[in-house]
Write a structure and sequence with these properties.
The protein has about 625 residues and is α+β, with helices and mostly antiparallel strands. Helices cover about 35% and strands about 20% of the residues. The longest helix has about 35 residues, at about 1-35. The chain contains 21 helices and 23 strands. Strands 2, 3, 4, 5, 10, 18 and 19 form a seven-stranded mixed β-sheet that branches. It folds into two domains: about 50-240, Penicillin-binding protein 2a (Domain 2) (Alpha-Beta Complex); about 245-285 and about 315-485 and about 510-610, DD-peptidase/beta-lactamase superfamily (Beta-lactamase, 3-Layer(aba) Sandwich), CATH 3.40.710.10.
Length: about 625
């Protein structure tokens, strides 16, 4: 009997020991899960309190006259919580409502739930970029599909079909963007990918907010955590005021339709860009974030006319004869020229056995007449004298002096306009010519580079640089950095203006007066007559840029009015022939539209000819 009692006590101790041991193991495992296993902690928190990002409204963009250029449009991301899905849901009906196929459904609903980034109890993106129309249809039936919910996002939309190269577009961030800015961007976010959207991204994007929401163990929404007192509201981006006049921009894009080239118009007194057109162009709404956008982008990329290429900033063009007024200014400042000096042209310029033609015809001219009549021989001569200041065999010294002036004019360097992709053009120097003539021991002479005198040869400019040049002429010796954004819009609906530094050219003002007078004659009595506007003194210069690959390019720059310049413009039309044929009349129409608001009936035939011209199929 005593033996049985002893045996029973022993079994009881074994049982109690086992219970204690099991309890210790369970307590240890529970502590490990709750205190040491971070994945468990995160999943537990996620099933109770969810951090939900709220997206800010991106800043709007207005033109100089407060017309809206870019606004926000709602799109929706559809999310799902896997633990709440109905296994018997009508999948076919679901797909039809969203306009997707079953293969897309299976691909989007299948996740690797073993990965920490996914939880069956936390919402996961099923489909993004759903347009408002599809959203409205689906929302009426949302109750039929438990576990699905929508998240509101904002994307860009454009009320005008113009200024695509200026405004740019937004895109979804990639890994590189996220890795550089992990505190700002997350997968699925949007950012400014080009144009003003890219340059002013820090101002436009705003700041994301954060809401803490309660969900039960099945992922169902319960309410805000602590009544929202810990929530951080999203902060909208700043609104911006652009410098462009959208009506002027639209008008110039119409004039440049069916042509290749670019136009830039600047307000000389501020450096504000009034219009910047690159042709061919495209409707910015083609790159709005929505289903099918990738097809539109691919279509633009494959277009042989390169509509995505911004010719205003990225194309390098020989300026042609519009370079002559700049060369004249430098020669006047260096004492090589004065208003009394005359040079005789024999209908061409001759050196040894070489001949360079001149379309102005024979005659003896001073600097005023040489600019007005665009005499090549006159400028070949003064170009040689600038380069040969230290002798025929030492042109590098003269070229360096010439290039010092050209750098002041903003040539051979970027003007740092507030758009991405600006090119510096090309101003050849001694090192360039030594490489070019390496086969001759690197020796070169002024006569090797004579074409530069008339804006040909190795000299290349962007259209923006050409417009800035004529702004300098309008201001008689200074310019402000060209820019496209006037400033942030403050509480009083006024832009906080961005003031640019004044940059002066080391050339005496009286020399500018000489050149400006000549440019007025070039429009009123010279090859720029089609740019003349009744009642307005227009000062300009035509150029015909030689093209070894086809028809010549038509070039013109001008400003007006002469004594109170309000607009400076450069026009470059590829393969259009003489500067007087297309570039001059287009510039004249642009100036007239901006200053008068309409085209005078006496000049409407010019407008009609420009609008009807199709130069894209010129061989």
């Amino acid at each position: 009997m005593a033996y049985q009692l002893k045996d029973g006590n022993q079994r009881m101790r074994v049982i109690i020991g086992a219970v204690i041991l099991t309890s210790i193991v369970l307590i240890f495992k529970l502590g490990q899960l709750q205190l040491l296993d971070q994945e468990f902690v995160e999943r537990a928190r996620a099933s109770a309190i969810q951090e939900r990002v709220t997206y800010p409204s991106r800043g709007l963009i207005f033109d100089r006259n407060q017309q809206l250029l870019v606004h926000n449009e709602a799109i929706y991301d559809l999310q799902f919580t896997a633990s709440r899905l109905d296994p018997n849901m009508d999948t076919l009906r679901f797909c039809n409502l969203l306009g997707i196929d079953l293969e897309t459904f299976e691909r989007n609903i299948t996740k690797d739930w073993s990965r920490p980034m996914f939880s069956r109890h936390v919402p996961t993106t099923f489909l993004n970029r759903i347009d408002p129309y599809t959203f409205a249809i689906f929302k009426e039936h949302l109750h039929e599909f438990p576990g699905f919910e929508f998240v509101l996002r904002n994307v860009r939309s454009y009320p005008h079909e113009n200024a695509a190269h200026i405004l740019g577009y937004i895109s979804e961030v990639n890994r590189e963007i996220i890795s550089r800015n992990p505190d700002i961007y997350a997968p699925g976010d949007y950012y400014g990918a080009s144009g003003v959207e890219l340059v002013y991204e820090p101002l436009l994007r705003g700041k994301k907010g954060l809401e803490l929401v309660l969900r039960d163990n099945l992922g169902r929404f319960v309410g805000s955590f602590s009544d929202g007192i810990l929530d951080t509201p999203a902060v909208s981006g700043y609104h911006l005021q652009a410098t462009i006049d959208i009506e002027l921009q639209a008008y110039i894009e119409k004039l440049m339709a069916n042509k290749k080239g670019s136009v830039v118009a600047i307000e000389p007194s501020t450096g504000e860009i009034l219009a910047m057109a690159s042709s061919p162009t495209f409707d910015p709404n083609k790159l709005v974030i929505k289903m099918g956008r990738s097809d539109s982008f691919l279509e633009l990329v494959r277009d042989s006319l390169q509509p995505l290429f911004n010719r205003s900033l990225q194309a390098k063009y020989p300026p042609g004869s519009i370079f002559k007024p700049i060369l004249a200014l430098i020669a006047l400042e260096e004492g090589i020229l004065n208003v009394r000096r005359h040079i005789t042209c024999q209908g061409a310029y001759y050196y040894r056995n070489s001949r360079w033609g001149c379309v102005a015809g024979p005659g003896t001219r001073n600097v005023t007449r040489a600019i007005q009549q665009s005499c090549n021989s006159f400028f070949y001569q003064i170009y040689r004298e600038i380069l040969e200041r230290e002798g025929f065999s030492r042109p590098a010294i003269g070229l360096e002096k010439l290039n010092d002036y050209l750098t002041q004019f903003g040539l051979g360097t970027r003007l740092e306009v507030d758009l991405p992709g600006e090119g510096p053009g090309h101003v050849p120097n001694d090192a360039f010519y030594k490489r070019l003539y390496a086969s001759e021991g690197g020796r070169w002479y002024s006569t090797y580079t004579l074409s530069n005198a008339i804006g040909q040869g190795e000299l290349e400019l962007t259209t923006l640089q050409m417009a800035n040049l004529v702004s300098i002429l309008a201001n008689r010796g200074y310019y402000f950095q060209p820019h496209l954004i006037r400033g942030k819009i403050g509480p009083g609906n006024e832009a906080e203006k961005i003031i640019k530094d004044k940059r002066r050219i080391d050339i005496s003002p009286e020399h500018f007066d000489v050149v400006v007078d000549a440019m007025e004659l070039a429009v009123s009595q010279g090859s720029g007559r089609l740019a003349a506007i009744p009642g307005i003194e227009v000062c300009g210069k035509t150029g015909t840029s030689e093209n070894p690959h086809g028809p010549n390019h038509s070039v013109f720059f001008a400003f007006a009015p002469k004594d109170n310049p309000q607009i400076a413009v450069a026009v470059y039309v590829e393969n259009a022939g003489w500067g007087s044929a297309y570039a001059a009349p287009i510039a004249g129409l642009l100036i007239e539209k901006y200053l008068n608001g309409e085209i005078h009936r006496s000049r409407q035939w010019i407008e009609n000819r420009m609008l009807d011209a199709d130069l894209l199929n010129i061989p």
